[in-house]
Write a structure and sequence with these properties.
Number of strands: 4
Largest sheet: 2 strands, antiparallel
Structural class: mainly alpha
Order of helices and strands: EEHHHEEHHH
Shape: flat
Amino acid sequence: MQKIKDVSVFINGIPINENEILRFSLKILLLSLILYIILNMETLILQSTMTTNTSMDFLPIVIQLIIAIGFVGIIMLATHLLGPKRKTKDKLVNFESGIPSVGNAREPMAVKYFLVAILFVLFDVEVIFFYPYAVNFKALGVEGFYAVLLFVAFFFSGFYYIIKKGALKWED
């Protein structure tokens, strides 16, 4: 089996290693998180001193987690014990969405698919950081608003970077 040492992507004639894109995106994410913490340090300290959590506050979550895991386990056990076990040749053949598989599954794929997947994950995680702001936007006040504006600026700078590099263009 041949080992791939360096996978480079050529976007608009510029060689770009996918590790560079990942490192750049992670740097932007880390910087935005650090700036958010720095700008909201006073709010975070005040919130942590005003509330006192005990382990009993988490009891409903633990109970719900136990019930959910138990329910999944019971259903899986029941289907395994009660379901039919007729293994025929037709049932054991691999297929994808009802289409019989053709050819070798180990063919090389374009790096473009992986780039889009990485970009989706990075931007999806960035969007998740908007949720705490949406919940606490009144308590965070003007400083929180400026922190979110800074976060959005980092978000759009990363988006601008991938647009300029042509990472979302699909033509060869």
